[in-house]
Amino acid sequence: MPPALSSIIKAYDVRGTVPDQLDAGVVRALGAAFADVVVLPEQAPAASGAARHVVVGHDMRPSSPELSAAFAEGVASRGIDVVLIGLASTDGLYYASGAASVPGAMFTASHNPAQYNGIKLCRAGARPVGQDSGLSTIRELAQSWLDAGEVPQPQGVTPGTVTEQDVLADYAGHLRSLVDLSGIRPLKVVVDAGNGMAGHTVPAVLGTAAGLPALPLDVVPLYFELDGTFPNHEANPLEPANLRDLQAAVREHGADLGLAFDGDADRCFVVDERGEPVSPSAVTALVAEREIGKERAAGREAVVIHNLITSRAVPEIVAEQGGIPVRTRVGHSFIKERMAEEGAVFGGEHSAHYYFREFWSADTGMLAAMHVLAALGEAPQPLSQLGARYERYVASGEINSTVADAAAVAAFVEQVVTAEARARGEDVEVDRLDGLTVTHPASDAEPMWWFNLRASNTEPLLRLNAEGADAATMQHVRDRVLGLVRGEHGGSLTVPAAPASAGERS
């Protein structure tokens, strides 16, 4: 029986286990379907003289070379040339797609365990391919071929060529052209690559491996060996346990900061000189401030996109700096769509994805890291002091609860919370941009707080994110909502009037 592609093709990408869900035959069919659905309708006919090709990159997983080669065969069977760029970070693939203005495919399962692999697809210029922009059609077409037992070969079509090209040096040079680090004060930075693709890209961008001049950076490498079995820790810095080695190394080496990348190096997490995490919301606000400054200096309006889970500090700081904050749903396809619609200069997510207009509105953890290095290198104070102004509130982080009916539970929470607010004579703001968001603006009776409940697309989970003006407020809101979600209905969402001291805010 052929695999059910509906089980591995998600809202934004392909993700499954090898070889039972993903093998050469499956990705060959997906490559041919990608060419039929995305590449051929988008690219000019060969008779026009325009080049037609697709770029394909892969991460360090043991299965990636074979799968990317099979995908290339599927694309080439449609008469499309393929350029294999080999080992690459996901933002390295976006660079190749954007610079050449051609579609692309990146083979990676990001931070998933070694038995997984996947594909991130993009149109020319690194524009996303998601469920609503071609991915569902690709799935249906490939599934029909797999069910029939063969991928039909178009009549009279000469297969395209498959060639190889290394774009690492060009990628590094492009990033260097966007953020100048040559004049900053010397910094010592520990980088945890998690045995992922940052071990390939950091030496090229922040070091001299790609032939670029040395920067005033003393890079202390941690787990730079490319190993898709992840022998040291999971390549997912969103989990606090996976930051412990970096935090210890920053303190041990007396470093100015630490950077942690996920498996495909498109996300970057930051810790300060004490080894304390700097929230992705704070990084979003810091980078936004820098990008707004550049836009305003050039006489241009500066729009910054942020998803609804980022700290309320982000839109506040954007507005204070003269920018225009635009709130959107969680997910890279939504961010990229709004980036294009608004002509936004920058976008950030709570999950440490950062999007730049000058990088084809695609996400790149490396460029965000360079902005942090530049900001710190231009300032006299340590990162803990520099970053404090961006950490105004206290967030819970994402907390998952298993529920049978996410919509019913969220509706129950909304009913209880709004009734409690009315009983106190106060109003709360409710919106459903992405799940349920309830916001209590600061008042004489209560500090500011908000929470969001979102259902998982793939699991019976309800995800809670909460934030408050101080730790006590956040904890009270978090615990009350969790009690409602998990059936512990006692208590009330009335926040104690006395806020926590400033020292408790972290």
UniProtKB/TrEMBL annotation:
- Which part of the chain is the Alpha-D-phosphohexomutase C-terminal domain? 398-482
Keyword Isomerase listed? The answer is yes
Per the record, the GO terms for biological process are: carbohydrate metabolic process
Q: Which Gene3D superfamilies match?
A: Alpha-D-Glucose-1,6-Bisphosphate, subunit A, domain 3, Alpha-D-phosphohexomutase, C-terminal domain
Q: Could you identify this protein by its name?
A: Phosphomannomutase
Upper lineage is:
Bacteria, Bacillati, Actinomycetota, Actinomycetes, Kineosporiales
Recall the GO molecular function terms of this protein's record: intramolecular phosphotransferase activity; metal ion binding
Record keywords, A-Z? Isomerase, Magnesium, Metal-binding, Phosphoprotein
**Required cofactor(s):** Mg(2+)
Q: Boundaries of each Alpha-D-phosphohexomutase alpha/beta/alpha domain copy?
A: 9-139, 170-275, 283-393
Family to which this protein belongs: Belongs to the phosphohexose mutase family.
